[in-house]
Amino acid sequence: MRSLLSFSIFIGICCLLIGSVMMTANTTSAATSAAVDNLSPVTNRELALARSATAKYHDFDRADADGYEFLHCAEGEGLEYLNASLLDCTFDIEHPEALHYIPESDGLRLVGVEYVIPVACTDTPPEGFTGDDDEWEFMAEGLPIWAMRAALWLPNHEGMFAEHNPRIPPCQ
User: Fold this and answer.
1) pLDDT at residue number 33
2) Rounded Cα distance, 169 and 39, in Å
3) Using CA atoms, how far apart are residues 151 and 171, in angstroms rounded to an integer?
4) Considering the chain, what is the average pLDDT of its residues?
5) What DSSP string describes the chain?
6) How far is CA 90 from its chain centroid?
7) In which band, very low, low, confident or very high, does the pLDDT at 37 lie, cut at 50, 70 and 90?
8) In whole angstroms, what is the distance from residue 49 CA to residue 43 CA?
9) pLDDT(12) > 70
């Protein structure tokens, strides 16, 4: 029930915000799957900051206590947990709006994070990590949001910011 309420609040916030801004065509940042090893030193420092800030969420109970609630399973992303209280117009490296997990025999394994900005905040891809490597998806999952994933905890050979990680098991 709590997850359904959070999802309803999330959709409500997005719908309210989208009413105030005209939407534009589907675009993403200039990068098209930069190799993980080819990121700039500044971007790598920012990724280290994101890892440091989210390392505590390897313990799923910490994520639950901090307000992350199950949203759904997304192919190539895993089990997505959203903290609706973090949804705003600000990109904050240390506070991703969503965490991605995969099931393992002893519980859940943190594999990545997702940053979310309502489209009402900007009609162009948000400013995210330094440089042009991050990939913002417009109307991600059919919702009025920009979303950008980072494979912080499970490397993705398609790139740190690729939309899907082929190493993520299929949803069941």
Assistant:
1) 36
2) 26
3) 18
4) 84
5) -HHHHHHHHHHHHHHHHHTTS--------S-S---GGG--HHHHHHHHHHHHHHGGGGSHHHHHHTT-EEEEEETTTEEEEE-GGG-SS---TTS-SEEEEEEETTEEEEEEEEEEEEGGG-SSPPP-SSSS---PEETGGGSSEEEEEE-SSS--TT-TT-S--TTSPPP-
6) 13
7) low
8) 10
9) no
pTM beyond 0.90: the answer is no
147: Cα within 13 Å, side-chain hemisphere: 23
Judged by average pLDDT, the poorest of 89-93, 140-144, 151-155 is: 140-144
CB of 33 closer than 8 Å to CB of 158: yes
Q: Are 129 and 149 in contact (CB under 8 A)?
A: no
* Closest to 82 measured CA to CA, from 6, 163, 162: 6
